[in-house]
Automatic annotation (TrEMBL), chain A:
Residues 28-69, 166-187 are annotated as: Disordered. Residues 31-53 have a biased composition (Low complexity). Residues 169-187 have a biased composition (Basic and acidic residues). This is Thioredoxin family protein. It comes from the Bacteria. InterPro entries: Thioredoxin-like_sf, Thioredoxin_domain. Gene3D superfamilies: Glutaredoxin. It holds the Pfam family Thioredoxin. Residues 81-165 form the Thioredoxin domain.
Automatic annotation (TrEMBL), chain B:
Residues 7-136 form the DUF4395 domain. It comes from Prauserella halophila. The chain crosses the membrane at residues 12-34, 40-63, 84-107, 113-134. This is DUF4395 domain-containing protein. Keywords: Membrane, Transmembrane, Transmembrane helix. Signal peptide: none annotated. Pfam families: DUF4395. It comes from the Bacteria. InterPro entries: DUF4395.
Length: 187, 145
């Protein structure tokens, strides 16, 4: 009898959690503005801000925003410069990571100013800890200077992601009509 | 079988459905030999391979011939990891039931059922997603970043 109740409770709990996870999948969370220095300064000028003593950890290594990032993420950003770099965190044991990788690779290829890097953190859990990431795939969008724009957990939705990144991408990247060079993202 | 490292994703989904039913029966009846059998099924999937796993064989014999073939393939590594997680819970549950500590049996089986149902209904692999968390808990995760 107890077993039957346990089975029932478990089934209900699993359905509730499953629905919650499904609704969260691919949802975009905008990051807090303080981690993104060029939101206030405007595009182009952010890299010129000197790393003055406002609590920066480690100096000389890129911009102040980049200094707080794990080394592997910094390396990923240090490659060919793009307006926005999507850093995807994956593990070997993660089936949706493969879907996310295929989708993001495709999106980045078709979008000017957008780059995609897939970091396999199976053997480097420290990165997940430093970035506060609990599940894979999690994709974090960084500006050129290392400021965090947004995060997506699960497999992203192509259109939603592009719409959220649009203010950050060169206007001719997509066939978008509204060029927004003011720099603050539209809510 | 051209690609040994990938499987028809509907196979594991079918296996998760069978697992769900089996675990519900275990909970309802408390008949632990069935849970022991499920533990062996998990062990084969995790440590031998997905192809010889009983539910995969069942899928190929009974279900696959009735479905359209698909080009869709799913990587094996996440699935085997999930089977290993299932194995751990089923083993603890079996030991709990068999040794008379029914609470342990109930809780472990319920957790396995929880994961199996998420996979069966939502295609969500809890064991795979938990990988990061499990690593975080393990003490050797202190490498410099």
């Amino acid at each position: 009898m107890t077993g039957l109740i346990v089975a029932g409770v478990t089934l209900v709990a699993a359905v509730i959690v499953g629905l919650a996870l499904r609704s969260r999948n691919g949802r975009i969370r905008m990051s807090a503005p303080p981690s993104e220095p060029d939101a206030a300064a405007g595009p182009g000028s952010s890299a010129a801000i000197p790393a003055s003593g406002d609590g920066d950890r480690g100096s000389g290594d890129g911009t102040p925003a980049q200094a707080g990032l794990p080394a592997d993420v910094r390396d990923a950003l240090a490659g060919e410069a793009a307006d926005v770099t999507l850093v995807q965190l994956s593990t070997t044991f993660c089936a949706p990571c493969r879907q996310a990788r295929a989708l993001l690779t495709h999106v980045a290829e078709g979008t000017e100013g957008l780059r995609h890097v897939d970091l396999d953190i199976t053997d480097r859990p420290g990165i997940a800890r430093d970035l506060g990431v609990l599940r894979t795939p999690t994709t974090i969008a960084y500006t050129r200077s290392g400021g965090e724009l947004l995060r997506v957990s699960g497999v992203p939705d192509r259109e939603t992601l592009l719409a959220a990144l649009e203010p950050r991408l060169p206007a001719d990247g997509r066939s978008a009509a509204d060029r927004s060079d003011v720099g603050h993202p539209t809510e | 079988m051209s690609a040994p490292q990938a499987v028809d994703p509907r196979g594991p989904r079918f296996a998760a459905i069978v697992t769900t039913v089996v675990l519900v029966i275990v909970l309802a009846t408390g008949w632990w030999p069935l849970l022991a059998a499920q533990t062996v099924v998990f062990a084969i999937g995790a440590f031998v391979g997905l192809r010889p796993a009983p539910y995969s064989v069942l899928y190929r014999l009974l279900i696959a011939p009735r479905l359209q073939p698909t080009d869709e393939r799913e990587d094996v590594a996440p699935l085997r990891f999930a089977q290993a997680v299932g194995f751990a819970f089923a083993l603890v549950g079996t030991i709990g039931y068999a040794s008379g500590v029914i609470v342990v049996g109930l809780v472990a089986t319920a957790l396995a059922l929880f994961a199996a149902l998420l996979n069966a209904v939502f295609g969500f692999c809890l064991g795979c997603e938990m990988y990061l968390l499990l690593q975080r808990i393990s003490p050797r995760a202190g490498s410099t970043s």
